[in-house]
Amino acid sequence: MADFDYYLAQFVDIHGRPKAKLVPAKHKDMIFTTGAGFAGFAIAGMGMEPHGAEFMAMGDRDAIRPIPWMPGTASVTCDGHVDGKPHALDSRVIAKKAMTAFSKATGLTFFSGLEPEFFLLKPTATGSYEVATGSESLDKPCYDFRHLSAVSEFLMELRSALTAADIDVYQIDHEDANGQFEMNFTYADGLRTADNLTYFKMAATAIAKKHGMLCSFMPKPFAERSGSGLHMHMSAGKKFGDNAFEDLSDKRGLGLSPMAYHFLGGLMAHAAGLTAIAAPCVNSYKRLVSRGSRSGATWAPVNIAYGNNNRTAFVRIPGGRLELRVPDASANPYLLTAAIIHAGLDGIVRKLDPGQPCNDNLYQMSQAELTSRGIARLPMSLPDALDALQSDEVLTAGLGAAFVNEFCAIKHTECRELMLEVSPHEFRKYVDFF
Questions:
Q1: Tell me: the pLDDT tens digits for 146-184?
Q2: What's the rounded Cα separation, in Å, for the pair 128 and 123?
Q3: How far apart are CA 41 and CA 83, in angstroms?
Q4: What is the DSSP letter of 378?
Q5: Digit-coded pLDDT (tens) for 355-384
Q6: Which residue from 139, 245, 293, 316 could staple onto 323, CB 3.0 to 4.6 Å apart?
Q7: Is this model's pTM higher than 0.85 or not?
Q8: What is the CB neighbour count within 10 angstroms for residue 175?
Q9: H or E segment to which residue 215 belongs
Q10: Please, which residues bridge with residue 113 across strands?
Q11: Are 284 and 381 within 8 A, CB to CB?
């Protein structure tokens, strides 16, 4: 273990927000033995009370990374323990349980890659935010060099921080909305990928602040623009580089193995419940629409279908692997990984057939045509998705009934709070209308 002055005992709450304590190096051993103690009731989604046991963050010795923007400090990714046992409502514990279940059922490791999209914003004189590259006005700004160059100093510093943490960035681009960017890093086993995404968010928000910007992972900050996705690529193998999801003899021409089709069948069978985890806030459902973006596409799924390189579908098949397109930037990567594994495993166990691929533009298909082809719609709101999750026996059993109850209670409260809010647009529309 390299020498550092401080160690950050770090984990995430139910929303995926990093929580931490800074531990001086002379006391670092406690992180790996008894754990760093936290008041569990103070952490969102742990299902704990103020008179209960401590929440102990137990460090993973294989997940120690330097934090370049905090010189002399290392991050230690932790699992939550209560009363000496892994805590059933801790996100990383839930993900590890799912990874183990996948390995036991298939003899393989679940691999994933996440593609984080985010907005770079700067504060305005009125207390709001605007895109950091303030002159942006293109209807189709995707891949635009001028605006990529405008924040290159931030992007390069972020990439350097990720490299120091052994996260291999292979491409960076300006995305479809003004002020929106994407930074992609190489895939890994599902737990490591979730760790990487969490570190990425920590780095991006801290380094953006250093540059006078806000890095926002809000799914849909601007009504007229596309939202920020967190597309997940999936495969499986005995070791890194293997791909049991690939079969070049696939008669459907998508390069998928029977196992991959069954896993896909599970994703589609549990799509509604999965959406609650993948799109976990009220704002998420403003992204899951077919129209409204000035660029001409929202790039987000609306219907439960899959297709060959079809970016309007719930699952895109880029050849030999699966890409789930419903997750957005606000998703907790550990919970997302776990939910996807349990849904896919159900498909493998029951040998579910996902049906025929749809290679048409789903945004342009009429409801009559969708119905005739048996293509259902994703939930249109968070309450609908939460109801689907609570009624999904496979996901509830996999994630844990206690966790599902806690998650849904928190999210239903969020929905009720926002329903009571009167937005400026709502006020302008109705104040002198009726």
A1: 999 999 999 999 999 999 999 999 999 999 999 999 999
A2: 6
A3: 15
A4: P
A5: 999 999 999 999 999 999 999 999 999 999
A6: 316
A7: yes
A8: 24
A9: strand 214-216
A10: 233
A11: no
